[in-house]
Every structure is written in structure tokens, then in C-alpha cells.
Amino acid sequence: MVTFTVEDQDGNRQEIEAPDDMGFNLMEILKASEYPVLATCGGMALCGTCHIEVLEGKDGLGDATDPELDQLENLPEYYPTSRLSCQIRISDILEGAVIRLRGEDVV
Known about the structure:
Largest sheet: 5 strands, mixed
Cofactor: [2Fe-2S] cluster
Pfam families: Fer2 (PF00111)
CATH class: Alpha Beta
Keywords: 2Fe-2S, Iron, Iron-sulfur, Metal-binding
Radius of gyration: 12 Å
Helix content: 10-25%
Order of helices and strands: EEHEHEE
CATH superfamily: Beta-grasp domain
Oligomer: single chain
Family: Belongs to the adrenodoxin/putidaredoxin family.
Organism: Algoriphagus aestuariicola
CATH architecture: Roll
């Protein structure tokens, strides 16, 4: 299991535990945890509605792919630590990370 923290739009933080051996991505875990992530494209990095900002732990995540960067750069609000949650696999690299939901900014 991997534990990370999610900050919602109101600044409330909640720790989430997620299995790291089932191939889930962060978007799927956020949706399963009942966060309001639209994920309109179903995780194909085509819409940007699963936009998050990584507040802590970005170094371990690696760089965004070109298709992910293309979507992020077209968002109304884009931060140096922005990522698409559909492109981040649940693994030990997320241990202790803190992410902020941003997808609602584009809806």
C-alpha cells in the first residue's frame, strides 16, 4: 500500500491509501475515493480534467510525457508542478506525496 495526501479545492487534506500492485493510476484512485475528478477522456491524456498540482514529492514522479505536456500547457491555470493524474501510476514513488486537485478549474 502507498499513502499520499490529497488537498481539495477548499484546502482540506485527507490521507489516501492505495494498492500499489494492481496497476491503477492516480485518477482512478481519486475517482474511487469520490473526489470530483471528471476524467472526461477516460485517462487518455486528452482533456486535462484530471489536472493536479504536486505540492510535495514531484521529484520521484519523473517528467511529464509530451502528450501530457500538450494538454497541461493548454489549461487556463498551469503550474510548474502540474500533472495529469491519469498519467501517474500508483507506486511507491507516491509515498508521502501531497497533491492538490485542480481539474475543477477547467470545468
